[in-house]
Design goal:
With about 250 residues, the chain is α/β, with parallel strands linked by helices. The protein has a single domain, classed as Metal-dependent hydrolases (TIM Barrel, Alpha-Beta Barrel). About 40% of the residues lie in helices and about 15% in strands. The protein is built from 9 helices and 8 strands. It has a 5-stranded parallel β-sheet. A 3-stranded parallel β-sheet has the order 1-2-3. β7, α7 and β8 form a beta-alpha-beta unit. The longest helix has 18 residues. The two termini are about 20 Å apart. It binds zinc ion. Zinc ion (ZN) binds next to loops. Zinc ion binds next to loops. This is TatD DNase family protein.
Length: about 250
C-alpha cells in the first residue's frame, strides 16, 4: 500500500514530548510515512521547527491560529512573514476563523486571517484552514483574494458548501470525527466528496476516536482513518491511500 501522509497532526504538542520518536516509528511501521505539522502561534514555531529538524518525515506549516487570537500581534504577522521567507515551511497555517467560541473577537480574527491569505498568495504556499461556524466567511475572504490553494481541515459543513468549495479546487480534510458511527451527517458528506478532493488527518492529539474518548490520539491512528473512510466510500483502502497521498503531495508540493 502507498505510504499514508497525515496532512494535519500537532506532533510538537507537549503531550508527545515523552514518546514522540517511538510514536512516529510505530506509525511508520503500519505505513504512515509522512506528517504535516501546523504551528499555531509564533511561540510554537521553535518547537515545530525542532520536530521537523529531528525527523526527516516531518514537514511543517507556519501560521497564527484563530483560537489564540488574543496572543497574536502585528509584530507576530511580521515575524510570520519573515519566517515564511527564511524557512522551509510548506504552507501557511493553521489559520482561519472560529466563530463558535463567542469570546474570540471576530473582527480581529478576520484581520489576522486575511493578512495570512495575502502572505500565502505572496509566497505561493497553500493555506491550512481551521474553520468553525464560519465556512461562508472564510470562503468569502478567499474569493476576495482569488486564492484557493488550500485545505479546510476537519471539514464539517453542508454538502452544498462542500460542493462550492471543491469547485474552486480546495481540498477537504477528514479525520477521526468522520469515523464516529453517530456522525451521520458527516458520513454523508464524506460519501459525497470525490476522493480527488480528500486529505486524511488525525489532528492528534486532540481528536480521539469515539471509542477512545478522553485519551490523546496518536500518529498511528491515520491507518484507521484510512480504513474507515474507505468503508464509508465503498472503495478499497489501498486506493484511498494512493489517491489521498497524491492529493497531499500535490497541495504541499512534497
Ligand atoms: Zn489543528
Amino acid at each position: 500500500m502507498t505510504g499514508l501522509i497525515d496532512s494535519h497532526i500537532h506532533l510538537d504538542d507537549v503531550r508527545f514530548d515523552e514518546d514522540r520518536n517511538q510514536l512516529i516509528k510505530s506509525a511508520q511501521k503500519v505505513g504512515v510515512g509522512r506528517f504535516i505539522v501546523p504551528a499555531v502561534t509564533v511561540n510554537r514555531f521553535p518547537a515545530v521547527l525542532k520536530v521537523a529538524k529531528e525527523h526527516a518525515a516531518v514537514s511543517y506549516t507556519l501560521g497564527l491560529h484563530p483560537y489564540y487570537i488574543n496572543e497574536h500581534s502585528a509584530t507576530d504577522l511580521e515575524f510570520l512573514a519573515q519566517s515564511l521567507h527564511d524557512s522551509g515551511a510548506v504552507g501557511v497555517g493553521e489559520c482561519g476563523l472560529d466563530f463558535q467560541l463567542k469570546e474570540l473577537d471576530r473582527d480581529r480574527q478576520k484581520l489576522i486571517f486575511e493578512a495570512q491569505v495575502v502572505l500565502a498568495k505572496h509566497f505561493a504556499l497553500p493555506l491550512v484552514l481551521h474553520v468553525r461556524g464560519a465556512i461562508d466567511e472564510v470562503f468569502k475572504i478567499l474569493k476576495k483574494h482569488a486564492y484557493f490553494n488550500a485545505v479546510m481541515h476537519s471539514f464539517n459543513g453542508s454538502i452544498e458548501q462542500a460542493r462550492q468549495i471543491i469547485d474552486q479546487g480546495i481540498y477537504l480534510g477528514f479525520g477521526p470525527a468522520a469515523c464516529n458511527p453517530n456522525a451521520h451527517k458527516l458520513k454523508q458528506l464524506v460519501a459525497f466528496v470525490p476522493v480527488e478532493h480528500i486529505l486524511l488527518e488525525t489532528d492528534a492529539p486532540d481528536q480521539p476516536f469515539y471509542d477512545c474518548f478522553n485519551q490523546r490520539n496518536l500518529p498511528i491512528d491515520l491507518w484507521r482513518v484510512n480504513e474507515e473512510i474507505a468503508k464509508i466510500k465503498h472503495i478499497d483502502a489501498a486506493d484511498l491511500a494512493k489517491q489521498t497521498t497524491f492529493n497531499t503531495q500535490q497541495l504541499f508540493k512534497l
